[in-house]
From TrEMBL:
Keywords: Cell wall, Glycoprotein, Secreted, Signal. This is Protein ecm33. The keyword Ligase does not apply. Residues 343-366 are annotated as: Disordered. The keyword Transmembrane does not apply. It comes from Penicillium cosmopolitanum. It is found in: Secreted, Cell wall.
């Protein structure tokens, strides 16, 4: 009994010491990292001090129940963790100007992934592949691809300012609950999302191709701005929020044969090589239709309702407004304007509708005003998307 009296406090103290050792950890040297090598699970955050220099290795740790943060560690050249398979919090690497090697061979799950300002990092060594992540943000890196990111589902997926990024191929991604954004990467970025079926917003700028053969529905905006692709094909897309094609100078074909509903505004402008617009199953647009450009044909074989306004202006003298004139007041509920052979076509806000034309005066129909005609309304995200698109022309 006396032995037990002294043994129990010793065991308790040992457990407290072990818990502290495998809890929140700040690493200033490799010896600090070695100090938690006996922990299969770290129940807390791991933070690397800005004073760290050289190569860092986290051995034996399999799980981090918290964040793993390396921020402004400008002298770190390599970061390896052979056994970590899961990080429940945020895996953040930021402002690591000399980091050239990143090897997490077994990592498959992160709470979120934030990589930014990694100018020396050319590849990701994620051999198992990250299949699960809440949000993914990758910006200002030297990555040439995102090999090793093999997501099934994701929240937001934001890829920006990666000037060497030539390909993005996320074969397994089926659903995104947040925004998918590609902007200011390599000018000829090719995007493959072969199994993406549903999502929120999908926005692309400065890309050369995108493949979304399985995409069926988007609850938010589908927008393309300043791209270099010639064709956009979404054979299974049935509905989306705001739909915008703006300033895509090589775009000559839009194919959305299954599209039936646009839950917001629909804008096409400054796509000078686009001659024909054919949406055979489109039935309803809850916001405004705002088309301006050089096209000679617009076909809506099934259109039943445009709840907002209608602005359609073309430079082509062969274009005919008769079909749409007959829809005014019945199918088209808001303000109306249709003009053929317009030398300077404009959007409903009065901005230039082609790359060669100058801005004209505002027409009677605007994206936001027309969208609320006759009691119809467009959500804040839809209006914001239109104002953003219009701002690009200023």
């Amino acid at each position: 009994m006396v032995f037990a009296k002294y043994l129990l406090p010793v065991l308790a103290a040992t457990q407290v010491a072990f818990a502290a050792k495998c809890g929140d950890t700040k690493i200033s040297s490799q010896s600090d990292a070695d100090g938690i090598a006996s922990c299969s699970t770290v129940k807390g955050d791991i933070t690397v001090s800005s004073d760290f220099s050289g190569e860092l290795s986290l051995a034996s740790i399999e799980k981090v129940e918290g964040d793993l943060t390396v921020n402004n560690v400008t002298q770190m050249t390599s970061f390896t963790a052979d056994s970590i398979s899961e990080i429940t919090g945020t895996f953040k690497l930021a402002s690591l100007t000399t980091l050239s090697n990143l090897n997490f061979a077994k990592l498959s799950s992160v709470g979120s992934l934030e990589f930014s300002v990694l100018p020396a990092l050319e590849s990701l060594s994620f051999d198992t592949g990250i299949t699960k992540a809440g949000d993914v943000y990758i910006a200002d890196t030297k990555l040439g691809s995102l090999d090793g990111i093999t997501l099934d589902t994701v929240g937001a997926f934001d890829i920006e300012n990666n000037r060497y990024l030539k390909t993005v191929n996320v074969n397994n991604l089926k659903n995104a609950t947040g925004d998918i954004t590609f902007a200011a990467n390599y000018d000829s970025l090719q995007i493959e999302l072969p199994n993406l079926g549903t999502g929120k917003n999908l926005t692309c700028r400065n890309i050369s191709s995108i493949s979304v053969p399985s995409l069926k529905t988007l609850s938010g905006t589908l927008g393309f701005y300043g791209t270099d692709f010639k064709t956009f094909i979404a054979p299974n897309l049935t509905s989306t929020g705001d739909l915008v094609f703006m300033n895509n100078k090589q775009l000559s074909n839009i194919s959305m044969a299954a599209l039936t509903k646009v839950n917001g505004g629909f804008q096409i402008s400054r796509n000078d090589k686009l001659q024909e617009i054919d949406l055979p199953k489109l039935q309803k647009v809850t916001g405004a239709i705002d088309f301006s450009g050089t096209f000679n044909t617009v076909e809506f074989g099934s259109l039943e309702e445009v709840a907002g306004g209608f602005n359609l202006q073309s430079t082509d003298g062969k274009f005919n407004c008769d079909t749409f004139d007959k829809m005014r007041g019945d199918v088209i509920r808001g303000t109306y304007k249709c003009v053929a052979k317009e030398d300077n076509p404009t959007t409903s806000s009065g901005k230039s509708g082609t790359s060669s034309s100058s801005s004209g005066s505002s027409s009677s129909s605007t994206s936001s005003g027309a969208a609320v005609a006759n009691g119809a309304s467009v959500g804040a995200a839809g209006v914001a998307a239109f104002f953003y698109a219009i701002a690009q022309l200023v």
